[in-house]
Structures are given as C-alpha cells and as structure tokens.
C-alpha cells in the first residue's frame, strides 16, 4: 500500500495514472487478468460513478461496464439524461472501478485487494475532480466509506474523497433482483436533483 500511495501520488495526469496502474505488479489480481480496466466516459463530467471490478466482458474489452450490468447502467443513466459518451460535462459521466483487474471467476474482491488499490482510486478521483460521486454497491462503499451495508446506506448522500457521494445498488444486483430497480430509480432522481441544484 505504501508503494501504491507513492506511485499514485506521483501521477500528475489521468494518462500517467493509467500507466502507473498498468505498471503496478504487486496486486495478485493482475496476474489473472487479460486487461487493465481503467475508466470510461468523459473525464470532464460532473459525475463520477464507481463500481467494483471488471467482469468477463470488461476484462476482454479493457473497458468498465460493457457487459449486461453496464448496458442496464447505460439505460438507467439515459433515463435521467446522462450519457457516458457525451462531450457535454453536464450530461456526461465518468466511470471507474475500485479494482482495475478482474478477480478470478468474478469472486468478491478481498478487503486486502481493496486496501491495496485504494490509493489509486483516491488519486483517480482527485484528478477527475468530479462535483458528485455515485458509489455502486458494497465494494465501492467499502473502499470509499470504509463500510459496507449498501441496503442501509443507499439513497442517503454522504461524503467520499472530500465530496458529496451517493451510495446506490450495483446494477448487477438489479439483474438478479429487478424489483430493486425502483430503489435505484429514486437514487437517480436524487442525483438528477443535485445536478440541477434542486437538492
Ligand atoms: N461490474 C463492475 O463493478 N464493474 C464493471 O466494470 C463491470 C461490472
């Protein structure tokens, strides 16, 4: 973690940070991964979304949230007028994960892996400098807030990395439990309201 902190702090740009992560060999997850999955979307976006770790599709393509959960995420974002591909910072989002490498057979990341890569995530947020953060799922909350319990945390604004952050359910959870979509819908409306300065 000490080396990760030093290396991450030295990265002065997102491109430098991406290279620093690609060159970081101390996380065992890297050995089993095909690609380093850094981020997607517009780095000028006002909103930064933080997920967990790449799945199979993300590992193959080297981009976050391109599989089924990602497609659902894109549809939900579109419903509140957001689009990761948008050049307009007010409509765009920027998307990253706690871990840049796929855990074997998609197992949950271990606390030690989260802790090891946290300095990179913290620097990532600093360099993107978003107005608002959305923490998707327990791993994002564990990393950014130091606590799990997403069903209790979701829907209430808190602070992460020194800025307003909204925990919500991970889109993969919604694939397993579609009835939870109404909860995330409420969270998205809360995000929309913040973006419009209504809350
Ligand atoms: N789930 C995540 O948390 N991140 C991805 O990039 C894809 C699925």
From TrEMBL:
Gene Ontology BP term (one): DNA repair
GO-annotated molecular function: 4 iron, 4 sulfur cluster binding; metal ion binding; uracil DNA N-glycosylase activity
EC category: hydrolase
Record carries keyword Lipoprotein: no
Catalytic activity: Hydrolyzes single-stranded DNA or mismatched double-stranded DNA and polynucleotides, releasing free uracil
Stretches assigned to the Uracil-DNA glycosylase-like domain: 38-189
UniProt keyword terms in alphabetical order: 4Fe-4S, DNA damage, DNA repair, Hydrolase, Iron, Iron-sulfur, Metal-binding
EC number from the UniProt entry: 3.2.2.27
Similarity comment: family membership: Belongs to the uracil-DNA glycosylase (UDG) superfamily. Type 4 (UDGa) family.
The protein's name: Type-4 uracil-DNA glycosylase
Organism: Rhodobacter maris
Parent sequence residues shown: 84 to 282 of 282
